């Protein structure tokens, strides 16, 4: 297993985010750093809950109180999730093993280009997200110190808060990176289907049967790899949605009740769109995995029309089995292991969130 880790880390197709590199590396330093980050997040959440939030709650509105508590609960959960990553790193290695098997023999260059392109985009996003978090976190903490005269070191508190926000960003980067790798595993399948479609009328029944079976095998391997990743990210995805949906609802609700201050209204709207962008970006990549599976179904269904009576029964059966498996539409990431993250799931979630955001001020009163 250690040898596998080393190979992945040195590979050009290997993971690039800080969390993934720490999980893949086999040295003690990387493992110790994950534990330090985990304990630090838990300690920071506990510190703020017991020393800072009580002072703020005595003066702030109910919406802000609950939002502050939710922020620290997310920090606490993120620390526990980091522990979960470290303790279950074998699942991540199993996924990488499946990933390398899928792209290793067929069309790995196309998958690598896809991953490389998106990794560069996400790196730029991390920079902009960090700047956004530095600005908003510093403004929030500074305003609380000025207004409530908190009896703690302002510089240390703001610095620790920014480090925690960076951990939030890196955790989202890791989730997105995992989604990108899962999306890349569909590229060889699409290429094999295109090849099968082009050679359908020119190849013998035996060759068509062999290619159809090979494509179906690669699809099964892809499903298996995504199942590994879904199990590995199960808690992270659930906590991410619970926090960011709740956080966006609180920010939206406070925006509607901001008062006459134009500055605070602008700042609240700026925060709402900033926090919502995290939710949209991660959700897009989670849904994309499910949608690629649906696109595979459309391709195989169209391919079935090109088969004629000259094709062997075995080849036609392979296509029918392929369609039967894809039609279950159960490929992708899940929320709490219960609901598949799909367009219908997001639509329902958006409706519920908007309803809560509008009704929250009345509920909390």
UniProtKB/TrEMBL annotation:
Coiled coil: none
Record's keyword terms, sorted: Membrane, Transmembrane, Transmembrane helix
Superkingdom of this protein's organism: Eukaryota
PROSITE patterns: PROKAR_LIPOPROTEIN (PS51257)
TM region(s), chain numbering: 32-51, 121-140, 152-171, 232-252, 264-287, 333-360
Keyword Transmembrane (UniProt): yes
Name of this protein: Gustatory receptor
Species name: Tetranychus urticae (Two-spotted spider mite)
């Amino acid at each position: 297993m250690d040898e596998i880790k080393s190979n992945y880390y040195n590979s050009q197709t290997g993971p690039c985010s800080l969390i993934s590199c720490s999980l893949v590396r086999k040295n003690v330093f990387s493992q110790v750093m994950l534990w330090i980050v985990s304990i630090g997040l838990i300690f920071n959440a506990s510190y703020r809950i017991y020393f800072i939030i009580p002072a703020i709650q005595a003066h702030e509105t109910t919406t802000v109180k609950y939002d502050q508590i939710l922020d620290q609960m997310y920090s606490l959960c993120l620390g526990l999730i980091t522990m979960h990553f470290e303790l279950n790193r074998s699942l991540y290695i199993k996924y990488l093993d499946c990933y390398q098997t899928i792209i290793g023999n067929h069309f790995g260059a196309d998958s690598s280009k896809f991953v490389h392109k998106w990794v560069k985009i996400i790196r730029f996003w991390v920079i902009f997200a960090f700047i956004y978090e530095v600005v908003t976190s510093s403004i929030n903490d500074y305003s609380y110190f000025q207004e409530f005269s908190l009896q703690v070191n302002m510089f240390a508190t703001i610095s620790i808060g920014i480090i925690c926000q960076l951990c939030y960003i890196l955790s989202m980067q890791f989730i997105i990176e995992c989604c990108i790798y899962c999306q890349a595993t569909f590229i060889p399948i699409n290429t094999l289907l295109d090849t099968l479609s082009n050679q359908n009328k020119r190849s013998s029944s035996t060759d068509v049967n062999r290619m159809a079976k090979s494509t179906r095998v690669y699809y099964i391997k892809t499903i298996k790899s995504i199942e590994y990743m879904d199990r590995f990210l199960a808690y992270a995805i659930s906590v991410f949605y619970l926090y960011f949906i709740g956080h966006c609802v609180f920010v939206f609700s406070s925006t509607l009740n901001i008062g006459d201050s134009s500055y605070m209204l602008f700042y609240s709207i700026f925060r709402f769109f900033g926090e919502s962008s995290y939710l949209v970006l991660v959700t897009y990549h989670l849904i994309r995995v499910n949608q690629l599976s649906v696109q595979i179904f459309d391709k195989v269904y169209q391919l079935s029309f090109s088969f004629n009576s000259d094709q062997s029964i075995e080849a036609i059966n392979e296509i029918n089995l392929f369609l039967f498996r894809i039609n279950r539409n159960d490929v992708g990431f899940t929320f709490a292991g219960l609901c598949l993250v799909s367009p219908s799931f997001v639509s329902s979630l958006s409706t519920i969130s908007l309803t809560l955001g509008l009704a929250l001020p009345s509920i909390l009163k």
